[in-house]
Amino acid sequence: MINNDQQLKSRLGSTARQQDWLTELLDWLKYILIAVLIGLLLVVFIIQRNSVIGHSMSPNLHHDDQLLVEKVSKLWGGIGYGDIVTISTRELAGHDDGPNIIKRIIGMPGDAIRIGEEGVYRNGQLLDEPYLVPGTVTRLRSLMYEQVTLQEDEYFIMGDNREISLDSRTFGPVHKKSIIGKVLLRFYPFDQFGFP
Predict the structure, then answer these.
(1) Which helix (H) or strand (E) holds 158?
(2) I need a surface site. Which of 97, 136, 146, 154 has the fewest CB within 10 A?
(3) Digit-coded pLDDT (tens) for 134-180
(4) How far apart are CA 180 and CA 175, in angstroms?
(5) Nearest to 158 by CA among 143, 147, 144, 174
(6) How many other C-beta atoms can be found within 10 angstroms of the C-beta atom of residue 169?
(7) Is 56 an active-site residue?
């Protein structure tokens, strides 16, 4: 009789330990799933990491700089003149596997942009562009985009390295839906951490 009681207690104790272990495992899985879901929501709707490819934004951004791009401000009109944005080339390239590009907002919906010999004009005023290297010349790339009036959802974008940048002077204005978000900060290289 005592043997049976001990065996029963032993089995009950073993079952309780298995249930405790299973409960703890399920708790861990629940927290891991919540963390993964929050991470996915952040990346899809709020913030993402982008790498600079090429030299079209030199001297302000360099090849392989790592950036954080926030996606929320474009939804509420938070993108303005001079902001650096990431743009999907899906619409420009006509397929899904083109890289994202990083450019600066020069013109916004309703603006009249003109590329002249002296530089870039917005609504008849020559732009002051302190982010460019002194002496930078902005050349016209296509007569189609020498003078453009931007429609309701169009933006005129350019790279800071005007000699090599492929931008709205080449392919025209980009639509708002192509803008992924605004560059929030550069986090690598660490010695250049901050807003570019």
Answers:
(1) strand 154-158
(2) 97
(3) 989 899 888 889 999 999 999 999 999 999 999 999 999 999 999 99
(4) 11
(5) 174
(6) 25
(7) yes
Instruction: Report the pLDDT value the prediction gives residue 76, as an integer from 0 to 100.
Output: 77
CA distances from 61 to 29, 33, 67, 183, 191 (A): 41, 36, 10, 11, 13
Long-range CB pairs of 130-136 (<8 Å, 24+ gap) are 131/60, 131/82, 131/104, 131/160, 132/160, 132/162, 133/59, 136/162
Told to judge if 58 belongs to the known catalytic residues of this protein, a careful annotator would answer: no
- At 188, give phi and psi (nearest 5°): -150, 135
Phi-psi region of 192 (alpha: psi -120 to 50; beta: other; left: phi over 0): alpha
Which stretches within 83-171 are classed as H helix?
A: 90-93, 168-171
Catalytic one among 71, 74, 103, 182?
A: 103
Distance CA 134, CA 158 (A): 16
Angle, vertex CA 110, rays to CA 109 and CA 113, nearest 5: 95
β-sheet bridge partners, residue 84: 104
Q: For residues 109 and 167, give the distance between their C-alpha atoms in angstroms, rounded to a whole number.
A: 17
pLDDT digits (tens, 9 = 90+) for 101-117: 999 999 999 999 999 88
Q: What is the dihedral of CA 113, 78, 36, 195, to 10 degrees?
A: 80
Q: Of these residues, 56, 88, 165, 178, which one is catalytic?
A: 56
Pick from 143, 136, 194: which is nearest to 165 by CA? 136
